[in-house]
Design brief:
It is built from 6 helices and 7 strands, in the order ααβαβαββαβαββ. It is globular and about 40 Å long. Strands 3-2-1-4-5-7-6 form a 7-stranded mixed β-sheet, sandwiched between helices. It starts with a helix and ends in a 7-residue tail after the last strand. It is an alpha/beta fold. Helix content is about 35%, strand content about 25%.
């Protein structure tokens, strides 16, 4: 009986930890493989992680593209960028540039990227139209723009300044409508991303008519 109670207590603790981290489960090896495939990642490519957070994904990208490739890790907080720089210095990786962005622009150079990743970031944009324009400018022709996001979550914290989309997140159809209405086209859609029914991944590229801009 005591063992049964202990097991129940342990399960309750795990549940509390999960609910206390609404940003989602940690990245898995399977998600890394899927994301790299969506990005078309290979050694030598120049890639951006927009909204890089603690730099975890930027580090994974940097190791994969290798010394002949390059990764731009963007954040809007200079303190976060310092943490990212420290992370890469300690990791001994020299193929990463930390980029300070704003709520309006990524801060990325024009036509700098063969692929761009936005993982759980798009719904944070307070000026999504301006950010879409900045993303377009950063992409090379036929470059992949991979967006992983979640349908609106009512029990997550409200995002100050972000558009009200019925919760913390954005519906897949709404994301596609915004992107395709602003110079992008859909390459692939992946519902139930990484085994999570609320998450999805959509791969975009600059629309063909927009490629010469």
């Amino acid at each position: 009986m005591r063992l049964d109670c202990a097991c129940r207590l342990a399960a309750a603790v795990v549940l509390l930890l999960v609910l206390g981290n609404p940003s989602g489960a940690p990245a898995s090896a399977s998600e890394e493989e899927s994301l790299f495939a969506a990005l078309g990642l290979k050694p030598g490519l120049r890639v951006a992680d927009v909204g890089a957070g603690d730099g975890e994904w930027a580090e994974r990208l940097a190791r994969h593209v290798g010394d002949t490739g390059h990764v731009f890790a963007t954040e809007v907080d200079s303190k976060e960028l310092e943490k990212i720089r420290k992370r890469f210095k300690e990791a001994g990786l020299a193929n990463v540039t930390a980029v300070l962005g704003t709520q309006d622009e990524t801060g990325l150079p024009a036509a700098c990227c063969d692929a761009v990743l936005l993982r759980m970031v798009y719904h944070h944009f307070t000026e999504p139209a301006r950010m879409r324009a900045s993303l377009r400018d950063a992409l090379r022709p036929d470059a992949a723009l991979v967006i992983v996001d979640t349908k609106p979550q009512m029990n997550w914290r409200r995002l100050e300044g972000a558009p009200d989309r019925g919760g913390h997140g954005i519906r897949e159809d709404e994301l596609v409508r915004e992107m395709t209405g602003d110079g992008f086209e859909v390459v692939a859609r992946h519902p139930g991303w990484n085994g999570d029914a609320d998450r999805y991944c959509v791969v975009f590229r600059r629309a063909r008519f927009d490629a010469g801009r």
